[in-house]
Design a protein that fits this description.
The chain has 436 residues and is mostly helical. It has one domain (2-184, 208-423): MFS general substrate transporter like domains (Growth Hormone, Chain: A). 81% of the residues lie in helices and 0% in strands. The chain is built from 18 helices and no strands.
């Protein structure tokens, strides 16, 4: 549980830092005189490099363990977060925004760490809850960063310097989190990978992990189907985080604080909605097995696509927020349901599987960014995305498992239930002498 709480908190800080710039974009846009095309490039840069880093970080977790991987990412990722405050023009700002995108790979480590820490009967809930609470950093930053900027400006600081000072908050938080993660976590319930391998104990990812894990994951067709579905849900989530505040300012003429609150409501759904997707997936699996998990994912993505079309057609700010929260609920639940499936795809290549599917989310976000750049119209982009998301649900229903795979996972599931029942039965007996 210590690993669970520290990993969601680390992901929260990373997500907060990843999108800390987004709610400040109306101010930055004015300072640098950014065009729509340049803003589109910045949004694409925010998620583009994450694709590569997510593909790399999963196998690195197999090789070095999530503790070392997360600590390193937090330390290295804090550099561009702090460095963006020194940007003096569009080009340098774009470069730092591109580098900041690397910390989005933190998601893969979070899902990897909870996957190895929890048993099959609760791993969906653990994965979804950790990711959901971490994802809420995207909603919190939409609300908090404008308030941080307002607080700094209240001391008489100019806006051009104020937003730069604001970026110190997420940068310092990352450094603090790096220390806590290194000090208080371990790679898996048995200990750290390095010590376990030295004892000759085989753990997830095989003897060495790394490239072998990646190649094995690449050969699994289910990985690529979930790559598409995750692009359809998490990719849309990232896209909305990047453009929502500006969308409400431009389309509905809201001020920065109000637009930040409206956009933040989407991200704050992650506090419960993503976890709910994992919880429902675990409940469905209890009755329907792995096929039940895929069917649930299909239904959630269809709901997301239809909700996105509704949001795109709204011309009043009140109904737009209602529609955004509605489709956001399906979006976050679909993200949770996707990673409730991930631990069951290939246990021997967990890092590669988690990394590739995680990268799919960023591919979806980059595709949405290029679509926005091509159309030049946010509302039209949302319409097209709604159609694409609905169609992509077919990939979820196409994920199938062999009878041998199902029986193997069912055996592990029943063993987990039996171990839990035995622990519960032993608890009262061990408590009686203490009570006496």
């Amino acid at each position: 549980m210590r690993a669970f709480h520290l990993t969601w908190m680390a992901f929260f800080v990373c997500f907060f830092a990843w999108f800390a710039i987004a709610p400040l974009m109306p101010v930055i846009k004015g300072e640098f005189g950014l065009t729509k095309d340049q803003i589109a490039n910045i949004n694409i840069a925010a998620v583009a490099v994450t694709i590569i880093v997510r593909l790399i970080i999963g196998p690195l977790c197999d090789k070095f363990g999530p503790r070392k991987a997360y600590t390193g990412l937090l330390l290295v990722g804090s550099i561009p977060v702090l460095g963006v405050a020194f940007a003096q023009n569009y080009e340098t700002f774009l470069f730092f925004r591109l580098c900041i995108g690397a910390i989005g790979a933190s998601f893969v480590i979070t899902q990897y760490h909870t996957s190895v820490m929890f048993a099959p009967n609760v791993v969906g809930t653990a994965n979804a809850a950790a990711a959901g609470w971490g994802n809420s950093g995207g909603g919190v930053t939409q609300t908090v960063m404008p308030l941080v900027l307002a607080a700094i400006l209240s001391f008489g600081v100019e806006k051009a310097f104020g937003w730069r000072l604001s970026m110190l908050v997420p940068g310092v938080l990352m450094l603090v989190m790096a220390f806590l993660y290194w000090r208080y976590t371990q790679d898996c319930p048995e200990g750290n990978f390095q010590e376990l391998r030295a004892q000759g104990i085989e753990i997830t990812g095989g003897k060495g992990g790394g490239w072998a894990s990646f190649k094995q994951a690449c050969a699994n067709y289910r990985v690529w189907l979930l790559f598409v579905t995750y692009g359809a849900c998490f990719g849309v989530e990232i896209f909305i985080h990047n453009m929502a505040a500006l969308y409400y300012v431009d389309k509905f003429e809201l001020d920065l604080k109000t637009a930040g609150l409206a956009a933040g409501s989407f991200g704050l759904l992650a506090l419960f909605a993503r976890a709910l997707g994992g919880i429902v997936s675990d409940r469905v699996a209890k009755a329907k097995g792995l096929d039940g998990r895929t069917l649930l994912l299909f239904a959630l993505i269809v709901g997301e696509g239809l909700g996105l079309l509704w949001f795109a057609s709204m011309d009043s700010v009140g109904m737009a927020i209602v529609a955004m929260i509605t489709f956001g609920l399906f979006t976050h639940m679909a993200c949770g349901a996707t990673y409730a499936l991930v631990p069951f795809i290939d246990r021997k290549a967990l890092g590669g599987v988690a990394g590739i599917i995680g990268a799919g989310g960023n591919v979806g976000a980059v595709a949405a960014g290029f679509l926005m750049k091509g159309t030049g119209d946010a509302q039209q982009t949302l319409h097209i995305l709604g159609i694409c998301v609905t169609i992509s649900a077919v990939c979820a229903i196409a994920v199938r498992f062999s009878s041998e795979h199902k029986s193997r996972e069912e055996k592990l599931y029943q063993e987990a239930l039996a171990a839990r029942a035995a622990a519960q039965a032993a608890a009262p007996a061990s408590a009686e002498p203490q009570a006496a």
